[in-house]
Each structure stands twice: as structure tokens, then as C-alpha cells.
């Protein structure tokens, strides 16, 4: 089951859990109202998983690759980690499936507060186009993830503020309808 909570305001190491005090958990339904989708899959059989294939077919996730984020495997590691943690949005959905290791996706709620989503082996998430978010590793400093796309991959992140994009306006409209 997904683990998510409202973050504290601390500027400490972003790889720490940053649970608010008191801790305020966030459930799947609240994430769904933000357009965030979540699945728990068996990462040990990702190469031949009928459940993953079904999701990919239903949602038209036609392209995929695998990225390993750790000092030894990712070129320009320090720079990339900083880039991933800058608040940004994409013009397409961001789909990630954790095959090994762990990390955090942070997303903004309707009141612009941060929700931290802990992602570990077997967790798959879709962040909708237009949502402000960021990613960081946890203290283990390692994650191996499948990146999925509808069609050809587009890697462009638009740092906040990026409210002028049509996709951001569409996302804000979506939020207004889920109240």
C-alpha cells in the first residue's frame, strides 16, 4: 500500500522523510483527486508481468526504458539529483515503476502544500501532466526505475512558475472539478 503524508517545512536533507508533526497521512483516494495514480506490482517479474502489460496496453504506455539513479551509475549524478528536486511540471504524464531501491515523489495539493509519496520496489505511479512535483532519493541513495511514456519520450521539465502552459491550465481545471 502506498505511503504518503504531508511534509514538514524543514530545509534539512531532502532525502529524509520530512513527516509533518503531527504526521498527517494521505490516502490513495486523496492522491486520485490530484490525478495521481498508483499500482502495486511484482517488480521481480517485470519482464513478463501480465498485470504490467495490461496497464501499459490500457493506458497506451508504448515506450519504456530503465534508469538507475546512484553515484556509480548515473553520469552527472549530483547535477541530476539537484535537477530532479527542483519543483517542475511536464507537458506529459510522468510514469515511474520502481524495480529496486526507493525514493520520494513530492506533489502539490490543491492548497499548494507538499505531499511526500514514498516509492519502493513494486510501486508504480503516474503523475498527471501539469502537476507541480519533484523527486529525490531517500537515505539509501539508490533507485532503479522503469520510465514509461505514451509515444516517444519527452524529457523536458519546466521549473515553476510554469502556469502559462496550456497543460497547467487543464490540470487546474481538473482540480476544480474534483472538489
From TrEMBL:
<keyword id="KW-0408">Iron</keyword>
<dbReference type="GO" id="GO:0005634">
    <property type="term" value="C:nucleus"/>
</dbReference>
<dbReference type="Pfam" id="PF03079">
    <property type="entry name" value="ARD"/>
</dbReference>
<feature type="region of interest" description="Disordered">
    <location>
        <begin position="1"/>
        <end position="22"/>
    </location>
</feature>
<feature type="binding site">
    <location>
        <position position="88"/>
    </location>
    <ligand>
        <name>Fe(2+)</name>
    </ligand>
</feature>
<dbReference type="InterPro" id="IPR014710">
    <property type="entry name" value="RmlC-like_jellyroll"/>
</dbReference>
<dbReference type="GO" id="GO:0019509">
    <property type="term" value="P:L-methionine salvage from methylthioadenosine"/>
</dbReference>
<feature type="binding site">
    <location>
        <position position="94"/>
    </location>
    <ligand>
        <name>Ni(2+)</name>
    </ligand>
</feature>
<feature type="binding site">
    <location>
        <position position="90"/>
    </location>
    <ligand>
        <name>Ni(2+)</name>
    </ligand>
</feature>
<dbReference type="InterPro" id="IPR004313">
    <property type="entry name" value="ARD"/>
</dbReference>
<protein>
    <recommendedName>
        <fullName>Acireductone dioxygenase</fullName>
        <ecNumber>1.13.11.53</ecNumber>
        <ecNumber>1.13.11.54</ecNumber>
    </recommendedName>
</protein>
<comment type="function">
    <text>Catalyzes 2 different reactions between oxygen and the acireductone 1,2-dihydroxy-3-keto-5-methylthiopentene (DHK-MTPene) depending upon the metal bound in the active site. Fe-containing acireductone dioxygenase (Fe-ARD) produces formate and 2-keto-4-methylthiobutyrate (KMTB), the alpha-ketoacid precursor of methionine in the methionine recycle pathway. Ni-containing acireductone dioxygenase (Ni-ARD) produces methylthiopropionate, carbon monoxide and formate, and does not lie on the methionine recycle pathway. Also down-regulates cell migration mediated by MMP14.</text>
</comment>
<feature type="binding site">
    <location>
        <position position="133"/>
    </location>
    <ligand>
        <name>Ni(2+)</name>
    </ligand>
</feature>
<dbReference type="GO" id="GO:0005737">
    <property type="term" value="C:cytoplasm"/>
</dbReference>
<feature type="binding site">
    <location>
        <position position="88"/>
    </location>
    <ligand>
        <name>Ni(2+)</name>
    </ligand>
</feature>
<feature type="compositionally biased region" description="Basic and acidic residues">
    <location>
        <begin position="12"/>
        <end position="21"/>
    </location>
</feature>
<keyword id="KW-0486">Methionine biosynthesis</keyword>
<keyword id="KW-0479">Metal-binding</keyword>
<dbReference type="GO" id="GO:0005506">
    <property type="term" value="F:iron ion binding"/>
</dbReference>
<comment type="subunit">
    <text>Monomer. Interacts with MMP14.</text>
</comment>
<keyword id="KW-0472">Membrane</keyword>
<comment type="similarity">
    <text>Belongs to the acireductone dioxygenase (ARD) family.</text>
</comment>
<keyword id="KW-0028">Amino-acid biosynthesis</keyword>
<dbReference type="GO" id="GO:0010308">
    <property type="term" value="F:acireductone dioxygenase (Ni2+-requiring) activity"/>
</dbReference>
<dbReference type="GO" id="GO:0010309">
    <property type="term" value="F:acireductone dioxygenase [iron(II)-requiring] activity"/>
</dbReference>
<keyword id="KW-0223">Dioxygenase</keyword>
<dbReference type="InterPro" id="IPR027496">
    <property type="entry name" value="ARD_euk"/>
</dbReference>
<keyword id="KW-0539">Nucleus</keyword>
<comment type="pathway">
    <text>Amino-acid biosynthesis; L-methionine biosynthesis via salvage pathway; L-methionine from S-methyl-5-thio-alpha-D-ribose 1-phosphate: step 5/6.</text>
</comment>
<keyword id="KW-0533">Nickel</keyword>
<dbReference type="GO" id="GO:0016151">
    <property type="term" value="F:nickel cation binding"/>
</dbReference>
<keyword id="KW-0963">Cytoplasm</keyword>
<feature type="binding site">
    <location>
        <position position="90"/>
    </location>
    <ligand>
        <name>Fe(2+)</name>
    </ligand>
</feature>
<keyword id="KW-0560">Oxidoreductase</keyword>
<dbReference type="InterPro" id="IPR011051">
    <property type="entry name" value="RmlC_Cupin_sf"/>
</dbReference>
<feature type="binding site">
    <location>
        <position position="94"/>
    </location>
    <ligand>
        <name>Fe(2+)</name>
    </ligand>
</feature>
<dbReference type="GO" id="GO:0005886">
    <property type="term" value="C:plasma membrane"/>
</dbReference>
<keyword id="KW-1003">Cell membrane</keyword>
<feature type="binding site">
    <location>
        <position position="133"/>
    </location>
    <ligand>
        <name>Fe(2+)</name>
    </ligand>
</feature>
Amino acid at each position: 500500500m502506498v505511503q504518503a503524508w504531508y511534509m514538514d517545512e524543514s530545509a534539512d536533507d531532502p532525502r529524509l522523510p520530512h513527516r509533518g508533526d503531527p504526521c498527517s497521512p494521505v490516502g490513495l483516494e486523496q492522491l486520485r483527486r490530484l490525478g495521481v495514480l498508483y499500482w502495486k506490482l511484482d517488480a521481480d517479474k517485470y519482464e513478463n508481468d501480465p498485470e504490467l502489460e495490461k496497464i501499459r496496453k490500457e493506458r497506451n504506455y508504448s515506450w519504456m526504458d530503465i534508469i538507475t539513479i546512484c553515484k556509480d551509475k548515473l553520469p552527472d549524478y549530483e547535477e541530476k539529483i539537484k535537477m530532479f528536486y527542483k519543483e517542475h511540471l511536464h507537458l506529459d504524464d510522468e510514469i515511474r515503476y520502481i524495480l529496486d531501491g526507493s525514493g520520494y515523489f513530492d506533489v502539490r495539493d490543491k492548497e499548494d502544500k507538499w505531499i511526500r509519496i514514498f516509492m519502493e520496489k513494486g510501486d508504480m505511479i503516474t503523475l498527471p501532466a501539469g502537476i507541480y512535483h519533484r523527486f529525490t532519493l531517500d537515505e539509501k541513495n539508490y533507485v532503479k526505475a522503469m520510465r514509461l511514456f505514451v509515444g516517444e519520450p519527452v524529457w523536458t521539465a519546466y521549473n515553476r512558475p510554469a502556469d502559462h502552459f496550456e497543460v497547467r491550465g487543464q490540470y487546474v481545471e481538473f482540480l476544480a472539478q474534483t472538489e
